[in-house]
Amino acid sequence: MSRFQVVSGKGGTGKTTVAAALALALATEGKRTLLVEVEGRQGIAQLFETESLPYEERKIAVAPGGGEVYALAIDPELALLDYLQMFYKLGGAGRALKKLGAIDFATTVAPGLRDVLLTGKACEAVRRKDKRGRFAYDHVVMDAPPTGRITRFLNVNDEVAGLAKIGPIHNQAQAVMRVLKSPETAVHLVTLLEEMPVQETADGIGELRAARLPVGRIIVNMVRPALLDDDDLDLVRGHGHGDPPHGHGDSDSHGEVPRTAIAKSLSAAGLGGARKGGNAQKLVDPLLAQAGEYAERHALEQAQRAVLMDLGLPLRELPLLTEGMDLAGLYRLAKELRKQGVQGVS
Asked: Please, what's the b/e burial string for 152-173 (b: 16 or more CB within 10 A of its CB; e: otherwise)?
């Protein structure tokens, strides 16, 4: 089972929400998870309706069954101070460098250093054990950068290990890559059933595989509910958004849109006026037009779902929460992930 769950996705797909829901799902039944943020947006704090996260691990939620979710917003500058103390025992000298602005300069200018610090801190949490020799966290979940740069972000330590041939930096970079390229890690990609996010997901999977980074699952977010069954969809598609077949406005023959029956149903539901038929007939065309638009969107979504299935990875789907995202919605998504077996991610 993978202990380090990395969640990426194109901007706008809800990857932070999915990462938070995944952390909750994995914490169920008494487990401890750490949810790590690396982009400095404080999105996790907003989702869990808590104050901004500091550079320390803080408990932010309790999962069903008594599990706990901790969160950490990694600050690259403070992470670099940790490294300086760990490897070079700078102590007060490191703090003096921060006051002089050298730490900020290094994390901003040095190529890849920021990503080295972020991935290194997360992997340290994955490897950390308590005094009894047990892992401090059962799972670490990272809300990672978007799909377009996830491979370079995760693979940066490989480049660093190649540049620094010996010494503590080389050893640390190798240790991080041993975690990232091992069965302990799974990189999940969040997408929508839309062409651009699906294409970026496919490209991202190709890049991850080429870099020999372990790809986990595709998580389709914000899936709309099914409103029409297959027979109804075929019927709507066959008549161009509800236009009357053969020039008639009330045809009910086999295989044609039952316009009169729809009007009667609308009238029975109190729509269109009280008199027989009322204005219900006038509502049929707009209603069928909406049904036609739904049928088109459904066909497009099915086509994108087929593209994702061809990528050869497990596919999981989360529903669109029409009432908006709040803490209750986050727990609902976590429950849905549990139902789909996230505890068995490998």
From this structure: ebbbbbbbbbeeeeeeebbebb
Q: From CA 321, how far away is CA 225, in angstroms rounded?
A: 10
pLDDT band at 21 (very low <50, low <70, confident <90, very high): very high
pTM of the model: 0.83
- Per-residue tokens: 238: 């066959």
Query: Helices 280-309 and 259-268 sit at what angle, rounded to 10 degrees?
Result: 110
Helix (H) or strand (E) holding 329, with range, is helix 327-339
What does the DSSP 8-state code read for residue 135?
B
Percent share of the chain, pLDDT over 90? 52
Is the distance from CB of 107 to CB of 77 less than 8 angstroms?
yes
DSSP states of 257-316: --HHHHHHHHHHTT-S-SSSSTTHHHHHHHHHHHHHHHHHHHHHHHHHHHHHHTT-S-EE
CA distance 45 to 143: 12
Task: Tell me the per-residue pLDDT of 200-237, one tens digit each, with 9 for 90 and over.
Answer: 999 999 999 999 999 999 999 999 988 888 777 777 77
